[in-house]
Design brief:
By secondary structure, this protein is mainly β. The protein has no helices and eleven strands.
Length: 126
Amino acid sequence: QSHFVESGGGLVQPGGSLRLSCTASGLTMFYYHMGWFRQAPGKEREGVSCIYSTGSSTNYADAVKGRFTISRDSAKDTVYLQMDSLTPEDSGTYSCAPVLSSPQATCVFKPLYGSWGQGTQVTVSS
């Protein structure tokens, strides 16, 4: 069972923006590298963005580079995903999860655990 809770999804028109939030229940995300993933109906889950535990580095999928921004607020123990210039292809269920890191001290789109929360639904449609 996931200890991470996502919020902030909704219905938005193409070109619009949303900010997703990820919080933890019963633990702290302080030491975790955190990632956002999304899954559209009939498609595999894919990594969207991740942020190193210290916030010192971030990664983005090519499809969202320049449009999405990941950040974390240690004081609030929250990870955010600011999504701008949304397109219908961005629709899906967005989930957050701890991720692994590379030897180069960057985060990678590989979940640390195999469990997922309910996620938050993002629908981009006119």
